[in-house]
Amino acid sequence: MDMVALKDISPAAQNNINTQFIVLDKMRTTMEGQNKTCLALVADETAAVHFQFWQDECDAFEPGDVVRLTNGIFSYNRNNLVLRAGKRGRVEKVGEFTVAFVETPNMSEIRWVPHPNNPKKYMQEAVISTHSRIFPPMP
Predict the structure, then answer these.
(1) Residue 131: partners with Cβ closer than 8 Å, 6 or more residues away
(2) CB atoms within 10 A of CB 74
(3) CA distance 108 to 126
(4) Predicted confidence (pLDDT) per residue in 42-53, tens digit
(5) What does the pLDDT look like over 73-108, one tens digit per residue?
(6) Taking the model in full, what pTM does it have?
(7) Fewer CB atoms inside 10 Å of the end CB: C or N, the chain?
(8) What is the band of 57 on the pLDDT scale with cuts at 50, 70, 90?
(9) What DSSP string describes 24-49?
(10) What are the Cα distances from residue 5, in Å, to 12, 32, 33, 48?
(11) Is the distance from CB of 22 to CB of 12 less than 8 angstroms?
């Protein structure tokens, strides 16, 4: 299985992102109807991104956990670009506190536009913010 660095992910409709990251911070859990979700800031040694945990995943993962994502998807949820497992993907804890990481760039804070030569692909148009505006940088 090929692992992709967070800096190399881009929005797409397919579930095919295999990657590994550390959970840096986690927001409180919210309910959307019967569904429980929570947003987390995750990172690897190349970039950071907002990750959406779903249902039991919200309670299963904490800051400091090293997580492997299999068949994940990077897509829009309510105008926010988030990495998530989706229906066919899987997240599993594979360790704790043993990953080098960076907090910038944050891939969720980049404006993406359709590629002019291939409307199924996206390209980076502009950096909205170098860091997460939802999770401000640690002092």
Answers:
(1) 48, 103, 104, 106, 109, 137
(2) 27
(3) 11
(4) 999 988 899 999
(5) 888 766 678 888 988 889 999 988 777 777 777 777
(6) 0.76
(7) C
(8) confident
(9) EEEPPPEEETTEEEEEEEEE-SS-EE
(10) 15, 30, 33, 10
(11) no
